[in-house]
């Protein structure tokens, strides 16, 4: 029968790998989330701008990222894009960890596409007269978006955005395929060396569970904070 | 790009078949369809259990669903690679591993779809059928589920699209599906990674996008059906 031995993987370099993996996963998630969220605001503004070209670009952007597997998006960035970059850029990127950089780019673009869809359905829940009213009051399109529409759309979109953030957190594990030493990569590595399969996967699972539930709890909290004052 | 398609198109489509094992797009589709077919009955059970009022039923099932939803698919694949051979007592192929992992994953996600479908059926119908003398199981089987499943068709198709995208993870454990075929082609050519992966992305895009179009078409039809029925009922 199975005898468990967590001591091995919690010692020496295996412990270091696990810790580094956990930190890399969190860094990947944090950077991609912030970049993805900012980008999604741009995408959703472009999509409701009424300018045909901008709308088409945003539509294609969302369509590509929703219909192609995340893993393939990572491959396109990591293996495909460098062939178009000037040598100096390639050297710089390689010197600063190309895996992590391209991983962040691919993950944040992917997250931006999904988040922008959530924001768009949040936006659709607002009456169109709001934009007209804001424009009539003298706000430009950009400031009407920034000060009137987006804050409300975000509030409506918080529950799906939390779900999307959870999706992004889990999607960081895909980065192992291009060699980012995140949590899944580290456990796979440890499993290969120690054959403590159950222990390694159990540690990784607990890690993902803990942060998934933290994210969900945070989303619950955010939902309460963002509710307008005075409403129940 | 056309040159690559000309030289390796067949490999992307069916792998080394008939000389070698079936692979490429064909294997991707087989994995996704098998995953859908195997997980569907289980997902219905999960969905029904999640709406049950008996604690001993819904608590363990809900825990399982949340546990699965909190893990990356990749980790579920690794777990399947480890656990399934322990359970059945012999080692399994990569294809079986991926199917097992996708079934477990879909069980949780499609289970939620089924649950939402069941909850969308007006309560009055359950009460009506119960007062007509049908028991719980008869009510589920003859009244609730047929309607719920019909209205869930678009969501099920959406899950199928998700499954197709998730089969790409088979690459990690060297299952010879579409992504892995592209990887092999890239390893042979070496100099044109962007072209190879762009072709790969386009294939996935066309597949998932056309399924997405089907999905919105079905969605519209179901909505229209419902309106017609409402109007004829009133």
Question: Which keywords apply here?
Answer:
heterodimer, A: mainly alpha, B: 234 residues, mainly alpha
In short:
The complex is a heterodimer of chains A (232) and B (234). Chain A is mostly helical and 232 residues long.
Describe this entry's structure for a reader.
The complex is a heterodimer of chains A (232) and B (234). By secondary structure, chain A is mainly alpha-helical. Chain A has helices at residues 6-9, 12-47, 52-67, 70-80, 87-95, 98-124, 129-136, 141-171, 183-194, 197-226. Chain A has ten helices and no strands. The radius of gyration of chain A is 21 Å and the shape is globular. Chain B is mainly α and 234 residues long. Chain B is 82% helix and 0% strand. Chain B contains nine helices and no strands. The longest helix of chain B has 41 residues, at 193-233. Chain B is globular, with a radius of gyration of 21 Å. The chains are: A mainly alpha (232), B mainly alpha (234). The interface between A and B is large, with 38 and 37 residues.
Low-confidence stretches of chain A: none
Range of strand content of chain B = under 5%
Which structural class is indicated by helix and strand composition of chain B? mainly alpha
Query: Could you state the order of secondary-structure elements of chain A as H and E?
Result: HHHHHHHHHH
- Please tell me the overall pLDDT of chain B: 93
- Fraction of residues in H or I helices of chain A: over 70%
Q: Evaluate the radius of gyration of chain B.
A: 21 Å
């Amino acid at each position: 029968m199975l005898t468990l031995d967590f001591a091995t993987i919690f010692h020496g370099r295996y412990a270091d790998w696990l810790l580094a993996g956990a930190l890399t996963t969190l860094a990947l998630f944090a950077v991609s989330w912030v970049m993805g969220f900012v980008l999604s605001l741009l995408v959703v503004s472009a999509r409701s701008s009424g300018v045909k070209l901008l709308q088409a670009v945003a539509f294609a952007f969302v369509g590509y990222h929703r219909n192609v597997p995340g893993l393939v998006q990572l491959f396109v960035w990591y293996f495909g894009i460098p062939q178009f970059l000037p040598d100096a850029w390639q050297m710089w990127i390689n010197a600063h960890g190309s895996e992590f950089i391209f991983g962040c780019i691919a993950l944040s673009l992917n997250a931006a596409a999904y988040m922008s869809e959530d924001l768009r359905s949040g936006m659709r829940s607002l009456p169109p007269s709001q934009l007209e009213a804001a424009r009539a009051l003298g706000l430009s399109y950009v400031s009407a978006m920034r000060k009137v529409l987006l804050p409300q759309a975000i509030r409506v979109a918080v529950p799906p955005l939390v779900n999307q953030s959870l999706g992004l957190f889990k999607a960081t594990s895909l980065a192992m395929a291009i060699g980012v030493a995140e949590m899944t990569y580290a456990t796979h590595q440890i499993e290969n060396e120690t054959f403590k399969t159950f222990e390694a996967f159990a540690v990784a699972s607990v890690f993902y569970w803990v942060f998934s539930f933290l994210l969900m709890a945070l989303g619950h909290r955010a939902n309460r904070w963002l509710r307008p004052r005075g409403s129940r | 790009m056309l040159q690559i398609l000309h030289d390796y198109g067949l490999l992307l489509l069916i792998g080394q078949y008939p000389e070698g094992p079936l692979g490429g797009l064909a294997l991707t589709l087989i994995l996704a369809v098998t995953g859908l077919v195997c997980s569907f009955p289980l997902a219905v059970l999960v969905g029904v259990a999640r709406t049950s009022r008996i604690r001993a039923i819904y608590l363990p099932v809900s825990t399982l669903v949340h546990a699965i939803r909190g893990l990356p698919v990749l980790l579920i694949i690794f777990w399947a690679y480890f656990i399934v051979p322990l359970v059945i007592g012999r080692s399994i192929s990569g294809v079986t591993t991926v199917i097992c992992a996708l079934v477990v994953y879909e069980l949780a996600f499609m289970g939620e779809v089924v649950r939402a479908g069941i909850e969308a059926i007006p309560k009055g119908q359950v009460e009506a059928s119960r007062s007509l003398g049908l028991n719980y199981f008869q009510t589920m089987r003859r009244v609730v589920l047929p309607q719920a499943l019909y209205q869930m068709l678009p969501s099920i198709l959406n899950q199928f699209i998700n499954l197709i995208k998730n089969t790409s993870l088979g690459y990690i454990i060297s299952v010879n599906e579409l992504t892995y075929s592209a990887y092999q082609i890239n390893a042979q050519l070496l100099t044109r990674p962007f072209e190879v992966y762009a072709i790969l992305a386009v294939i996935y895009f066309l597949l998932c996008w056309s399924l997405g179009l089907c999905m919105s078409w079905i969605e519209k039809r179901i909505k229209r059906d419902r309106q017609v029925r409402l109007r004829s009922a009133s």
